[in-house]
Design brief:
CATH class of the largest domain: Alpha Beta
CATH superfamily of the largest domain: Alpha/Beta hydrolase fold, catalytic domain
Radius of gyration: 27 Å
Distance between the termini: 48 Å
Strand content: 35-45%
CATH topology of the largest domain: Rossmann fold
Helix content: 10-25%
CATH architecture of the largest domain: 3-Layer(aba) Sandwich
Mean pLDDT: 96
């Protein structure tokens, strides 16, 4: 009888397993569109100045009281359509207050009073507008057209903040190639009285030619690209007064091509704070300027480091203070918070963690505590903490292991917490920050539960100096430990990136576990020294020697793989993009015989061809560090090729320009070395959209065909 029951159980188990669907590479690459990533709540926001949160269900916005978790009211698409008949779907909200919704309707920013059911504000910029930023207090939109900056108001006027004919001078856009945490070029003052903006003069920056094949015949598209060691942009900061319609510029001489970053307004609109960084990126001056005259008032403090300094966060002022602010700094080895005044007085260090603070969410109503995000003791995770401003004592609010994305209510009493981990697709909850009481408001189903997939597990290894290295390994479905499996190593390895995280799929793209099962492969990824969220020493060890330590750590991972009985150590392939392309080509060519096959996408092959801001931070200039540039230059190792190497680029890549791969191909021809090359016409630094399916299939087919 027991045998019959066991047989029935096994039959049912294998029948269920056999009925699972196969996840194709195409479906995996288009997973977001196919519903194969965990679902979430759209328009999940806190109502401004209320302990009420919103989320969208179908075409209805639901407003819920955080304390009682009871629905207060709803706003339907039909209700909105009575005022805005052209709306087809419930719009994505930019802001919600106790009376109004702010959203984009076509090209117009709308402010709708959902209590009175009336249109309150409508601002429409020019149809050609880019880089738009709406300010509700000014009732205006800042935007750019070509190289100039404009403002649109409720009167639909088009105010020209700049009217500069010289195309080399660009206003209102992100500068310094979006390094130092820069994501935009316009900065409304707290009360909407002024608009500060970045301006860059690219006259010293060389043109870089990209070819547009969509014209007949093909045409030249010159972009500005500042290469390491060459001329860079000259930055300025302008301030436009909406009342007087006049612009002044901060009195800063940047003829030495130093950087202007982390622009912050003081809450009283009297001053602007700017982090100024020398081009060598080893010295920061944090300066205060008068917003009316543009004159420098004082230097609040300076920071220096023999490797690099890289401020990435604006000042965050304490509630109801126009003078006291929090500043992020890695000066003690980890990103921590420091309290300063605008007179330049250092008050104290608020946090003293041996882990990385990643952001500030806000403060509580008592103004005694600040809420922050950070890794906590496990750098693969992200959590939210409450920190007492006086004592520095802290409490972790997000209890579950994993990667948490949180929003704080206006008074700090509640937290919306959306999180996942390697076992949890997504949970969303509301947390009382005083007593820790948690209410789950959404649980996502596993979107892959009906698909045949293997497992992903975390691994901890040790570098040659004993440093912990985190990795993950994905095995195929039907994994048999008695068999030998080929391996795909997926690598990035550069600064500001982390591939191994305690999040859904372990941080992997869906095509990786799909490939593992489709082709019976092991997929392996390791975050080497130089990657993010491990502190300054871990990241900065790569300074002036890109590729050295990173390769050493990746080979630690390879040695681990070779120690596994189920790994076929004669069949290891490697793949990566951008910095990962640099790592892929470097590992393949500097360590012949380790890998049979490599596919490098958008690879940096010679750091002298990369941009000033990023490249010089990590390598200094080619003139200052000729040996470092020479050793990192992939071309020098092309004769070592032992196996198959495929280079892939976007034909109009403005980030890692085609010269990297073209000169490597040129060297291969010169050295009589055969390698393969493919370009995606008119794609930029990565291949997006439906064409990405073609890219992933090409990469994976190449690996399967050659990793033998």
């Amino acid at each position: 009888m027991k045998k019959i029951i066991s047989f029935i159980f096994l039959f049912t188990y294998f029948l269920g397993f056999s009925q699972q669907k196969e996840l194709t590479l195409e479906d995996a690459v288009l997973g977001y569109y196919k519903g194969l990533y965990p679902s979430t709540l759209n328009n999940l926001n806190w109502v401004k100045n209320a302990n009420t949160y919103t989320f969208q269900k179908d075409n209805e916005l639901i407003l819920t009281n955080a304390k009682s978790n009871k629905v207060i009211s709803t706003i339907s698409l039909k209700q909105l359509q009575k005022t805005y008949p052209t709306l087809k779907h419930f719009p994505r909200l930019q802001e919600i207050s106790t009376t109004t919704l702010t959203f984009k309707n076509g090209n117009t920013i709308e402010v709708y009073n959902y209590i009175n059911k009336t249109k309150e504000i409508a601002v429409t910029p020019d149809k050609a507008a880019e880089n738009s930023e709406f300010n509700s207090k000014a009732k205006a939109i800042a935007y750019t057209i070509a190289n100039n900056l404009f403002i649109a108001t409720t009167a639909n006027s088009k105010i020209a903040v700049t009217s500069i004919k010289d195309k080399n001078i660009v206003s209102g856009q992100a500068i310094h190639r979006s390094e130092f945490g820069i994501v935009k070029g316009t900065f409304w003052s707290p009360k909407g009285t002024f608009l500060a903006f970045y301006q860059k003069d690219e006259s010293n920056v060389t043109n870089y030619p990209l070819v547009d094949i969509t014209t007949y015949p093909a045409s030249l598209n010159n972009i500005k690209y500042p290469m390491a060691g060459q001329g860079s942009e000259i930055a300025k900061i302008g301030i436009f007064n909406l009342k007087t319609a006049k612009t002044i510029y901060l009195d800063i001489d940047t003829s030495d091509e130093h950087y202007l970053t982390n622009l912050s307004w003081t809450p009283d609109e009297k001053y602007i704070l700017v982090a100024e960084i020398n081009r060598a990126q080893n010295h920061v001056w944090y300066n205060r300027y008068n917003a009316e005259t543009g004159k420098k008032i004082n230097t609040l403090f300076e920071e220096t480091n023999e490797k690099w300094t890289e401020p990435e966060f604006d000042a965050v002022f304490l509630p109801n203070s126009t003078t006291n602010f929090l500043w992020f700094s890695e000066r003690d080895g980890f990103m921590n918070l420091y309290l300063y005044t605008t007179e330049g007085k250092f008050v104290k260090q608020i946090t003293k963690f041996k882990w990385v603070v990643t952001g500030i969410l806000g403060f509580d109503k008592s103004e005694k505590n600040v809420f922050i995000t950070g890794t906590g003791t496990d750098p693969r995770e992200n959590h939210t903490f409450k920190v007492n401003l006086k004592t520095g004592k802290y409490t972790r609010i997000t209890e579950q292991e994993g990667t948490h994305t949180t929003q704080l209510s206006f008074d700090g009493n509640y937290l919306i917490n959306s999180y996942s981990n390697i076992n949890v697709p997504r949970n969303i909850e509301v947390v009382n920050t005083k007593n820790g009481k948690t209410t789950v408001i959404f649980t996502a189903e596993n979107p892959l539960k009906n698909y045949k997939l293997g497992t992903t597990n975390f691994i901890t290894l040790k570098a040659n100096d004993g440093t912990k290295l985190y990795a993950k390994i994905t095995k195929p479905a039907n994994f048999d430990p008695s068999k030998k499996y080929p391996v795909l190593v997926y690598v990035y390895g550069g600064p500001h990136a982390q591939l191994v995280t305690n999040s859904w799929l372990g941080g992997s793209s869906l095509w990786m576990p799909a490939f593992a099962t489709l082709e019976n492969y092991i997929v392996f990824t390791l975050d080497n020294r130089g990657s993010a969220n491990r502190g300054f020493a871990f990241e900065s060890i790569i300074h002036r020697h890109l590729g050295d330590i990173e390769i050493e750590d990746q080979l630690t991972g390879i040695n681990y793989l070779k120690s596994l009985n189920f790994v076929d150590s004669s069949r290891i392939a490697i793949n990566g993009w951008s910095y990962g392309g640099f790592m892929t080509t470097s590992l393949m060519l500097r360590n012949p015989g380790v890998f049979t096959t490599a596919v490098a996408g958008g690879p940096v092959t010679d750091w002298k061809y990369y941009e000033v801001m990023y490249g010089e931070r990590y390598m200094d200039t080619p003139q200052e560090n000729p040996e470092g540039y020479k050793k990192a230059r992939v071309h020098n190792y092309i004769k070592n090729l032992d196996g198959k190497l495929l280079l892939i680029i976007g034909s109009v890549d403005p980030t890692v320009v085609p010269q990297h791969s073209m000169t490597l191909l040129q060297e291969a021809v010169k050295q009589k070395v055969q390698l393969d090359f493919f370009t995606y016409p008119m794609h930029k630094h990565n291949v997006r959209g439906i064409d990405r399916v073609h890219l992933v299939k090409k990469m994976m087919n190449y690996i399967v065909e050659n990793n033998k």
